[in-house]
Amino acid sequence: MSELPDWQIEIDQGAGRWQADVEGAETLEALRSLEVRALGKAGEIPALMKRIPQIPPLDRKAFGQAVNTLQARVAAAIELRRQVLVDGLIAAELTDATFDPTVGALPLKLGHPHPLSTVQADIEAIFSSMGFHVLDYPEIESEFDNFEALNIPGWHPAREMQDTFWLDSGHLLRTHTSAGQVRAMHEFPAPFRAIFPGKVFRYEATDASHEHTFHQVEGLMIDRKVSVGHLLDSMRTLLSAILQRQVEIRLRPGYFPFVEPGFELDIRCQVCAGEGCSACKRRGWLELLPCGLVHPNVLRAGGLDPTQWQGWAFGLGLSRLVMMRYGVPDVRLLMGGDLRFLSQF
Amino acid sequence: MLVSWRWLSQFVDTRGVDPLQFAGKFTTTVAEIDDVVQWGFGLRDVLVADVLAVTPHPNADKLRLATVDLGGRTVQVVCGAPDLRVGLRVPFVPPGVTLPSGITVRDGEVRGVASPGMLASEKDLGLSDENAGLLALDGCDAPAGTPLHEAIELEDVLYDVDNKAITHRPDLWGLYGVAREVAAMLDKPLKLFDLSLTLGAQLPLAIRVDAPDACPRYVCARVANVVVQPAPVNARLLLRRLGTRPISNLVDATNLVMLETGNPLHAFDARFLRGNAITVRRAQPHETLTTLDGQLRHLQAHDCVICDAEGPVALAGIMGGANSEIRPDTTEVVLEAANFDAPTIRRTAMRLGLRSESSARFEKSLDPVLADVAARRFLKLCQTWNPQAKIVSHLADIGPFTPEAKPLSVIRTTASYLRERLGVTAAELSDAWLDACLTRLEFQVARAGDALAVTIPSFRATKDVKIAEDLIEELGRHYGYDNIRSEAPQVAARPPHTPPLKLLERQVRNTLVHAGLTEQVLYGFDNEDARARLGLHEPAELTRVAVRNPIASAHTHMRRNLLPNLLAVAEAGLVQGDDGQPARKGLNIGVFEIGRVFVPERSDDRGLPPVLGNGTEADVAAYTAGMEGEMLRGVLDARLGTQPLPLQPVRLGLVFAERLGGGAEGAKLVFPAPEVTHRLLQQAIATLQHLLKWLGKVPLALETAGPAASAGAPDAQPSWRSQLGFDLVTADGETVGYVAALHPRVRIALDQPAQAVFLELDLAGLERAPAFKRVNR
Ligand SMILES: [Zn+2]
After folding, report:
1. Which of A139, A144, A239, A280 to mutate to test the interface with B (most CBs of B within 10 A)?
2. CA nearest A108 in B: which residue?
3. Is residue B490 part of a domain?
4. How much of chain A, in percent, has pLDDT values that exceed 90?
5. Which of A97, A127, B345, B738 has CA atoms 20 to 30 A from the CA of B334?
6. Interface subset of A 283-342, CB within 8 angstroms of B
7. What is the ipTM of this complex?
8. Is any Cβ of chain B less than 8 angstroms from the Cβ of A262?
9. Chain B neighbours among A 121-140 (CB < 8 Å)?
10. Chain A residues whose beta carbon lies within 8 Å of the beta carbon of residue B517
């Protein structure tokens, strides 16, 4: 038996050491650095080739083959080891039970839209989708826009009933969004339809259901022919969209100088389905909004000829709608600024 | 206003109609009923009793024994009523009967004496709260022992009609007007009043109306031989359940006739009308009158007064004077049934804070025709209750009004127009039905084919019905709005217009909410208390819009900047905690508001149609062509008198506030480390630039002394702005607002140790800001 050359012994021993090192690598990172050390461009195994000049010429071919074999074996061992480690990590990840849902929070913070804005935005979207302009008119108004133009002359009790805030300038804080009706008629050529939401002001003591400042949405439709039948259809459609359910409505006589005929519109009480309950004071109906066909004098004030143009109008209490939607018990919460209340929306 | 179904049924045949069911239809046809009250039920076991004898109770000073006749049998019961006397006719409740109040009358002893039954007061029977004595059955001539409900008028249903629903309907302020509506609803005839009278000789009073504008009609008569006593029990109970206290037959008669016809009346004691003269005139300077309620009233020139030869004896249409009121020994009265001008009455009643049943009615513009009807109804009733009473005068009728002088107005329209506006066809609402409906409501209908000439009855003409549209309402409510088909309007499909500022507001709101801030919607009033406490004020030369009639001492001015109200909200948040963060050191609050502020500077908006602002005389004439009366006057006055409105820019205000420590007293003097202020300021600036990016605008430049500000920009140097901050300048070189730290003096005044930064921006200025910077090529 011929004795093995020295280089052969060294390569064989090296193979054993590498195998042990590979099996000792406990992490993917350790395995990767071992791989670099063994097989990388400057790795120990490729470096063996540099010893060719010192190998007897007859052995050189065999030496080359032996180094290549070593390289292949170590590479295979590393790949095998990597599979083992990956399998272990996957299993560990899948069976992780250390998560504590109560600890830690993302630094993300979302703010809060005001509920009045949310409901107003919903209403604006509904009306906008049906071709209504969405307009914004001043809160300090002239007597003309707030009263005269709406067929409420100076002696009219409505001027006292409305409990107006007067300003030193002789102007007033609008008592209703209806003050925008004649503005809209002058701003847009007929036919048109529009809503104008906003703040209104009443000189009255505040309590859980009264505020000196609250929000309304005025609706106005001007066209060649506008009838009570049209009003009924429009109100049923729009209110169903706003309240997100099919509503049953009824009209009863109501007096507002700027509409004729004028109505109080009731919706069927949803709590009792019309049977009568405490929510509707046993009436089966809830009073929701005043509406009517635009009075010819208002059309005239708007520069429209009442023999050519007709219209309907309504005034929806936005604050009241917010209270209904969210079950807010006290209107004063809406403009009270309390973050404990507002941060829930 | 309360309506008695029983009384109403004297004018309309309501047999077969259940008033409880009918209430719903009344609400949708006439006026809203707030409540339906059942009165005088559950008393069918109560009997009429005559008091035959009264003897003392052996064991009690305040009780007596009454022997009463129940028709064929007598009973002795114990009674504590002070007015118990022989000859009195009263209700008797037999033992075992349970009254509506729940009390069961026992067959037992009272203080050792048997008392098988009870004599009852109004309160005992649940008829009213009156409990001072027994219910005296004056004027009830049924035999003793008759069931009470057969002897007097009980078992009534009352409609409590919402007064706000009838402010425009003077005719509904009397029962008769309500009966007219019910008759029309039931298609039954309405019973007419019997107005015939036997009148006496020449009225020994000289009557003059010197203020014809305040008093279109003054009807007056003198009645002698009257005896002041309680009115019959039915009348007293009727007044009682309609909310009026019975006083005496004469006063009660005026009240009953007012409730029936709607026209208030006043009765003077003729003895106290000095000089046998009545003059209706405006008050003179420094004149006074003590009214029936004992108050001394200082009169003003526009008040209307009724005077005798020496001075005022009544405040016209509001309240009589104490000097001439009916007294127990009155034997001769002068009755006034007048018509007064609504604005005159309202102005005086408002000024004196004296709203009576009478002024409430005159304020509604009553039909002058009613004055004569009411006078005759009173005289008739007076004679019924006082058969010996004599009308010793003519029925004087003075004033500018006469039925002939004021012809009824006529509305000319077409049946097809009325139908078209309701949205019904001729098949649904026929010509015959239309004519019949208006006729039932006492309109006179003259028809020529489709054309209609509709005469308005006097009681609807004072202010309620004027134009064809008013007839639409009459027809619609009686036809039933529920019977009108819904019909979708046929409209041109056009994209709606939304003002760019409105679109910007939506984006700003959404972006800031997504950036973690809480939106606020706050009062347009400043809060003077908070401003004083925190030392918040604009430079002295910048005035605010002042409120002439503030609702609260803190709300005397309109805000001209958003920050003060917003800061107060943030300050409260630092105490209360926010969004689950406890109120302790490090609590960081971000709030914003989008809203209008008010700057006294004149805008170019006068709150008038453009034609009234800058139209030629010809334009104005064209504009006012179809207007008349008050409308025309109002428009022309407005054209001359209206001043430009203040500026009302929409702003964005934003506050970041951070709590610096606990709330211990004195800890407010904690000064923030510069890094804290810097970080908050960076938070505000980063939020702003993030917003600008979303809006698609060039970021605003931060400058220490920016160029000229936009018209809607916040005030540059308010007390709350520290030097640490920047003007915010658009790429077009306009200052639209600023971002700054809170002034240390204001910060120290906060009730918590805190630091705050804020920004306030003119949104119209921001809207104008360019979306990109010019690129040099
Ligand atoms: Zn209900």
Report:
1. A144
2. B516
3. no
4. 70
5. B345
6. 293, 295-297, 300-303, 305-306, 310, 334-335, 337-340, 342
7. 0.91
8. yes
9. 121, 127-128, 131-136, 138-140
10. 111
**How confident is the model at residue B102, as a pLDDT?**
86
Query: Cα B502 to the chain's mean position, in Å?
Result: 35
Q: How confident is the model at residue B114 (pLDDT cuts 50, 70, 90)?
A: very high
Task: Tell how far CA B4 is from the center of its chain.
Answer: 22
CB B339, CB B366: distance < 8 Å: yes
Tell me: pLDDT of B226 over 90: yes
By DSSP bridging, strand B410-414 and strand B266-269 are unpaired
Per-residue DSSP letter, B147: B
**Could you say which DSSP state residue A260 is in?**
E
Assess B640–A contact: CB distance below 8 Å, yes or no: no
Shortest distance, CA A93 to any CA of chain B (angstroms): 33
Structure confidence at residue A104 (pLDDT): 55
Centroid of ligand 1 to alpha carbon of B33 (angstroms): 16
What is the per-residue DSSP string for A163-210? T--BBTTS-EE-SSGGGGHHHHHHHSPSSEEEEEEEEEE-----BTTB
Which is more confident, A102 or B109? Answer: B109
- Check if A107 contacts B (Cβ < 8 Å): no
Q: Is B551 on the interface with A (CB under 8 A)?
A: yes
Per-residue pLDDT, A93: 85
Alpha helix (H) residue ranges in B207-335: 233-241, 249-261
Q: Residues B449, B511: one domain?
A: no
Tell me, yes or no, if B230 comes closer than 8 A to chain A by beta carbon.
Answer: no
- Distance from A343 to chain B by nearest Cα, in Å? 5
Considering the domain architecture, whether residues B245 and B354 belong to the same structural domain is answered as yes
B423–chain A Cβ distance below 8 A for any pair: yes
Q: Is residue B491 part of a domain?
A: no
Smallest Cβ–Cβ distance between B28 and the set A113, A201, A250 belongs to: A250
Mean of per-residue pLDDT scores for chain B? 93
Res A215 pLDDT > 50: yes
Tell me: pLDDT of B500 over 50: yes
Distance from CA of B645 to the nearest CA of A (A): 7
Tell me the residue ranges of DSSP E strands in chain A: 133-134, 140-141, 172-173, 192-201, 213-223, 249-253, 259-268, 285-294, 310-317
Q: Is residue B628 part of a domain?
A: yes
What would the two tokens of residue B613 be? 């602002």
Instruction: Give the DSSP per-residue string, B376-412.
Output: HHHHHHHHHH-TT-EE-S--EEESS--TTTSPPPEEE
pLDDT at B579 over 80: no
Question: Nearest to residue B547, comparing CAs of B566, B524, B563?
Answer: B524
Fold exhibited by the domain A115-342: BirA Bifunctional Protein; domain 2 (3.30.930)
Q: With H, G, I as helix, E, B as strand and everything else as coil, classify residue B193.
A: coil
Q: Is B492 inside a domain boundary?
A: no
Among the partner residues B486, B573, B635, nearest to A233 by beta-carbon distance = B486
Residues B448 and B504 in one domain: no
Closest CA to B722 of B747, B703, B754: B747
Domain containing B32 equals 2-40+157-186
Domain ranges across chain A: 6-94, 115-342
* Residue B514, helix vs strand vs coil: helix
What pLDDT is recorded for position A153? Answer: 82
Do residue A338 and residue B606 have CB atoms under 8 angstroms apart?
no
Count the domains in chain B. Answer: 6
pLDDT band, very low/low/confident/very high, at A10 (cuts 50, 70, 90): confident
Give A325 Cα–ligand 1 centroid separation in angstroms: 16
DSSP conformation class of B271: G
C-beta separation of B725 from B737 below 8 A: no
pLDDT band at A1 (very low <50, low <70, confident <90, very high): very low
Asked if A295 and B469 come within 8 Å (Cβ–Cβ), the reply is yes
B425 — contact with chain A (CB < 8 Å)? no
